Amino acid sequence: MDTLTRIRAFIDVVEAEGFSAAARKVGRSKALLSKYVRELEDDLGALLLNRTTRQFSLTEAGHTYYRTASDILKEIDNLADLVREGSKDLKGRIRVSAPRTFADAAVGASLIDFAVAHPDVTLEIISDDRFVDLVEEGYDVAIRITRLEDSGLIARKLSPFTLVACASPEFLKRHGPIKHPSQLADVPCVVDTNGRFLNNWRFDDQDGSSYTVSVSGRLEVNSPLTAMRAAEAGLGVAFLPDFVYRQRADTGTLVPILENYMPTDRGIYAIYPHRRYLPAKVRAFVDYLTQWFKTHQ
After folding, report:
1. pTM recorded for the entire structure
2. How many CB atoms lie within 10 A of CB 292?
3. What CA–CA distance (Å, rounded) separates 151 from 142?
4. Which pLDDT tens digit goes with each residue over 90-126?
5. What is the structure's pLDDT at 289?
6. What is the 3-state secondary structure (H, E, C) of the chain?
7. What phi and psi, each to the nearest 5 degrees, are found at residue 192?
C-alpha cells in the first residue's frame, strides 16, 4: 500500500472531522479510510486518533504528524503543479483571504474576473478584516492593504494605495477650510474602526516626518462605505481608501482635503507563504491580479 495514500486518508479524515464525512467528501468507503489510517498508525507505531463510537480526537502525536504531513503533501502537490505549469488549463482550489473593504469595493471585481477567466479553478474567498495566519489557517494567498512590514511571507505589490481625507462641501462651509491635519482635533470626524490606527490618524509632514492626530466624532463605523455615506451627510471628515473615494470623485458630494499630508507608503499586496514550489494556480492568480490592476487603475 502506498504510504502517500494512507497519509492522504488520514488528512482527509482530520480535515473532514470524521470518517463518515471524509468518506462522503472523497468518495471512498468509511471502512477503507479506517483501514488506511490504522495501517498508517501500525507503520508509525503510534496512535494518531482517539476513536469513540460518536467522535474522534487527535492525539498529541496526531497533531504533530498532521501539521508536518500536511506541509509535505502540499509540497508534493505544488511540485506536480509546477511540472504541469506549461498547461493553460489551471485546476484546483485557491483559498483567498481578502478584507471586506477590498471584496465589497469595485476592485473586488478582480477576484470575480479571475474566476470567470478560469472556470476549472474553485476560488474560495473569505472576507475578513483581520490579518489571518496563512500557514496555520490553510490560506493560499491573502490580499492586504497595508504598509509592508518584515515577515516570513512573500509579498507582491498589486497597486499603490493611499487614504483620502474628505468631507462634504456643506461641512466645510460650516467649519471653515481645513489646511493642516492638526485642525482635525477640533472638528467632528467619522472613525472607521477597521483601520489599524483607529482614531489616531497618521500624516506625513513636509519634511518627511510622520505624526498622528487624535480625532473624534459621534459616529464610529467598521465600514469605509458607511464612513463615506456619513461624510456625504455632513457628519464629519472621513479617511477613505482611494478606491472607495473614487466612487464619488466626480459627483461633488465629497471634497478631498490635506492632500499634501497623506502617507504614500502603503499598497495593495498579494501575500503568500514562502514555499519552495509555489503552485502554478497561485502564481497565475497573483499574475492575473497584477495585470488587472495595471489595466483598471
Report:
1. 0.65
2. 19
3. 14
4. 788 899 999 888 888 888 899 999 999 999 898 999 8
5. 92
6. CCHHHHHHHHHHHHHHCCHHHHHHHHCCCHHHHHHHHHHHHHHHCCCCEEECCCCEEECHHHHHHHHHHHHHHHHHHHHHHHHHHHCCCCCEEEEEEECHHHHHCHHHHHHHHHHHHCCCEEEEEEECCCCCCHHHHCCCEEEEEECCCCCCEEEEEEEEECEEEEECHHHHHHHCCCCCHHHHHHCEEEEECCCCCCCEEEEECCCCCEEEEECEEEEEECCHHHHHHHHHCCCCEEEEEHHHHCCCCCCCCCEEECHHHCCCCEEEEEEEECCCCCCHHHHHHHHHHHHHHHHHC
7. -90, 110
| pLDDT (tens digit per residue) in 165-200 | 999 999 999 998 999 999 999 999 999 887 767 889
Encoded amino acid at 175, one letter: H
Cell representation of residue 29: 468507503
β-strand partners of 216 = 188
pLDDT beyond 50 at 275 = yes
Dihedral of CA 114/116/118/124: which sign? positive
- Sheet containing strand 121-127, edge to edge, reads 121-127, 92-98, 141-146, 266-273, 153-161
Is residue 133 within 8 A of residue 104, CB to CB? The reply is no
pLDDT at residue 88 in the model? 55
Look up residue 140 and give its three cell numbers.
493560499
Q: Give residue-wise pLDDT tens across range 214-234.
A: 999 999 998 888 999 999 999
